[in-house]
Structure formats: C-alpha cells, structure tokens
Write a structure and sequence with these properties.
This protein is of the alpha/beta class. The protein folds into two domains: 123 residues, no CATH class; 129 residues, Cytidine Deaminase, domain 2 (3-Layer(aba) Sandwich). It has ten helices and twelve strands. The protein has a six-stranded mixed sheet with strand order 8-7-9-10-11-12, with helices on both faces. α10 links the parallel β10 and β11. The longest helix has 14 residues. The protein starts with 7 loop residues before the first strand and ends in a 9-residue tail after the last strand.
C-alpha cells in the first residue's frame, strides 16, 4: 500500500532575530484527515471466536461515520478508541478487524487516511441513527445539560471508589508525560495523553494535534489489548480538560484525570456526577483538585 504518512513534516522557515534573519529547516507536526468507516461481518461468523484486529479484505458494504483531523500514527487505536468513547463498541470482542482502505481506485496516500472497522454482525448499530448522533454531538449550540443527559441515557455507571494516591505521585506525572512526548520534542506542536498506574508508573503515551484524538488513541490501545476498564489507572493530558476528554475517560472507567491546565465547567460537572477525581493546574509542587478529593491522600 505504499509508505504511510509520517507524524512529522519538514518546512523551510525564516528565523528573525534582532539584527539578522536566517533560513532553516523546521519540523512540523503532520495534520491530515482520517475517515472512519464501519462495516458488518457476516451473520454466520457473528458468534465465531476469530482473532480480533487481524487485517481483513475490504468489503463493499460500509458506511463513513466520522472524519477527524489527526496526526498520522496509531490510526487503528484512534478509530477503536473513538468508537468506544461514543458507545458504539463496549469491548474488543465486538471488533472483527481493522484495516486501512484497499480500494485500488484511490491514490495510495488517500488509502492511508481511511480506516475500516469491521464489527460482528450482531454488534453493528443502526448506522443512520449513528450518523444523526455524531452530527448532533458535533453541532454548535448543544447545551451542557443535554450532553450530561446523553451520558445518563447511555447508562454510564458512576466510577467506584479508589484507588488512593499520594500527592507526590501526582506531582511527578507532568515530567514523565513530557519525557514520553517524542514528537512534541521535535515539533513543539502536539497534545499528549498518558496512562499511568496508581503508583505513577508510565504505561503508554499517545500524541496528536487534537487533544481528543490523543485520548482516543490511549483508550484504543487499552481496548485492543483487553485492558478495559481502566479502574486502577490515571490519565494525564498535556493541556486543559474538557467535557469530551472526561466523557472518553468515563467510558473507559478511568477514576483519576489530571491536566496541566484548567478544566472547563462542564468537565467539572461530569466529573462530580460520575465520581471522577479531576485534577487541574498540575505544575511543580501545586495542583487543584476540583472533584473527588477522597482519592488523594492529602494532609488535614
């Protein structure tokens, strides 16, 4: 299928300094579209115990459900994590295979920007209703009250108590996250999400131009590895925490979400209602706990 797009791209820039200017080659974070398609496996295979996530031949009956701008890399994880966050799939067993597009009528570079996810026939949702749902949730003007209500309708459970972590564990997370940001070190232009265990051990880092995509890649990694729910883990994001990020973490069962910057009001409301410990402004020796202080062993 040719060479897949790189996560970094080169550009010629002019560096302007007092009294001089010079040309140099700079590294940029690549941004390209990713189209996510769904298709159904045959009814006869719906109950079969086939290997999950193996490459499969391209099928003709498939439907585009989302298009997102992303940094190439970990595309299968991104697609799987996105579908899990939207409630389309609950477990890896519902996915029969993920592959890049193999349509010979498309240019090779375009095929790498299309991912087809094949679901078990008994797991395929109503695609027309799904398209309406994605349109509604991405449209402008959807109020916070309706967004929270949608999670209640889905039956998202409240995160159970635990684990408890030491403040010192949380204070070390930003440094560990930054150390794992390889593409950011080269480009300076990417968001990141990292997964830690309750002792602060770094398990995986994912980067993307979109902060939501970075979390989707993280959740997709866990989904494809059979690691969900992440009930004894911590997620740390490099920017602010929004409703969408908290929603994705809630669906993955994450009890503690940390951010370098501030949370939004709706992120705090979601965290409070569903029992998530939400930490913001995690920098240096200080941080704010907006909800779920019971999981942080602070001194009286």
């Amino acid at each position: 299928m040719g060479i897949p797009p790189d996560s970094k791209s080169e550009a010629c820039v002019w560096v302007v300094e007092p009294g001089q200017s010079r040309a140099r080659t700079d590294q940029l974070a690549t941004e390209e579209p990713l189209e996510i398609r769904l298709r159904a496996g045959s009814a006869a295979e719906a109950g079969g115990a086939l290997p999950v996530f193996r490459r499969r031949s391209q099928a003709s009956a498939e439907r585009t459900v989302a298009i997102t701008m992303r940094t190439p890399g970990n595309d299968f994880e991104l697609a799987a994590g996105f579908l899990h966050g939207e409630g389309v799939v609950r477990s890896g067993e519902q996915i029969r295979g993920i592959s890049h597009c193999a349509d010979p009528d498309l240019d090779e570079d375009k095929r790498h920007n299309i991912v087809s996810v094949e679901l078990r026939a008994d797991a395929l949702p109503d695609l027309q209703a799904l398209e309406r749902h994605f349109y509604t949730t991405s449209a402008c003007g959807v109020c916070g009250k309706a967004s929270l209500e949608s999670l209640r309708i889905r039956g998202c459970p409240v995160i159970p108590p635990g684990p408890e972590v030491e403040p010192a564990v949380l204070r070390r997370l930003p440094e560990k996250l930054q150390a794992g940001q390889g593409i950011f070190a080269a480009t300076g232009g990417l968001h990141a999400a990292a997964l830690f265990d309750a002792e602060g051990t770094l398990l995986v880092v994912r980067e993307d131009v979109g902060r939501h995509n970075a979390v989707d890649k993280l959740v997709g990694w866990a989904l494809m590895g059979g690691r969900l729910p992440l009930s004894r883990h911590i997620v740390m994001v490099s920017g602010r925490s929004s409703f969408e990020i908290l929603q994705k973490c809630l669906m993955a069962g994450v009890p503690i979400v940390c951010a370098v910057s501030a949370p939004s009001s709706l992120a705090v409301a979601l965290a409070r209602e569903f029992g998530i410990t939400l930490v913001g402004f995690l920098r240096g020796d200080r941080f704010n706990v907006y909800t779920g202080l019971d999981r942080v062993r602070v001194e009286p």
